[in-house]
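Class, look over these structure tokens:
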Amino acid sequence: MKGGTVQINWHDTKPVLTLDFHPQSGILATGGADNDIKLWLVNSGEAQKKVPTASYQSCLSYHGSSVNILRFSPPGEHLASGADGGELLIWKLHATEAGQTWKVLKTLLFHRKDVLDLQWSTDGAYLISGSVDNSCIIWDANKGSVHQILDGHLHYVQGVAWDPLGHYVASLSSDRTCRIYMNKPPAKMKGLEKMNYVCQHVVSKAGQQLGDDNKTCKNHLFHDETLPSFFRRLAWSPDGSFLLIPAGSYKFSSTSDSVNTAYIFPRKDLSRPAVQLPGATKPIVAVRFCPIVFQLLDSKSDTYFKLPYRVVFAIATLNSVYIYDSQSVVPIAMFAGLHYAAITDIAWSCDAKYLALSSQDGYCSLVEFASEELGLPASLPEDKKVREESKNTTAQKLDGLVNTTTDNDCGSAVNRTDTGADKLIQASQSSLSTPVPSKPAKRRITPMAIDP
């Protein structure tokens, strides 16, 4: 793999707040504080053994304020973008004599304040948005109308995610809660149009046993509103087997300091986290799954999730990016020193060749993976996607201590700690607390990759 910051004029030197790859063409779309959406063609640097680059293609100008979030629909026909002031647009791809162009199809009006995150349903018929007005809205994309309002949060909604199987939606807020909503249509109503999401879980705190006593105390699982980011972008795995939630803040004991972490919630029990990923020096603000699953590695045992394939995902802190797979809690790569300001979003290309990230410093970084570097692709048939009753979605229960070490000392012991109401697989963060060294002004640092 090879990557680095692409030093071009992305958005007139203003912060780049979001990005996404088109699911078919691989075109990269970015949104920024200049109120525009720009489309880029990513050029491989593999032949020259250089960092990949990006070539400007076109600009979509319509928003009147900063574009905080954009996502292509899974079929690729539409692009949704959310901005300050509650602006939410749906763009449609049109064929022209000169090629293709995007035009505004619908303006979705209801949010009263900034839209911070959004996610499409798998079929592209609906989308969910989260806003500074403390609400989530499920929209009918075809009608351009509000389908349902979810207003349970008490502070900004900074992340939303739509279950690829359509049974759940999830939202993460600076009120330190993650809400899981389940689709429960009224008994007399049938059809997708009658879907109705009701809150099934409000995840906020975890119980922890105090000494030898039977008493427990509960600590918050997530950062409060002082987190220095407007984004807490959570995500479902492509098969729906688990939900990955950022902005974690966990205490190993009642007297210890909180560590930054991300939690994995297995589909079978979304009421509590099953896995805590190693803590980082900075808060985690975004997570994103690779759209392709890979064959299992013979050299690793699938310790935590009994999946017939490997799921790869990226976790972005304010200043670094970790890449993991589902066979280990030890990251397979880490990039640091890429930007001078906070990372705002991450995205994978449809063929898993590129990973892109945006930053408040006005630049984007691109990472290019060699062919089969992440592994051999595995098939994910529709009928193999995880169902509610599937046992493949649960984290394997572990007893005692499991040692996971690597040659570069990137990993450490993993144990299962009884926290009273919750049992959590926790990974030591000490070996992964790699602060970014101070850098002189105007100097870019080549990212470092740590391979297992």
Remarks:
- Residues 383-452 have pLDDT under 50 and may be disordered.
- Residues 67 and 83 are 4 Å apart (CA to CA).
- The chain is about 0% helix and 45% strand.
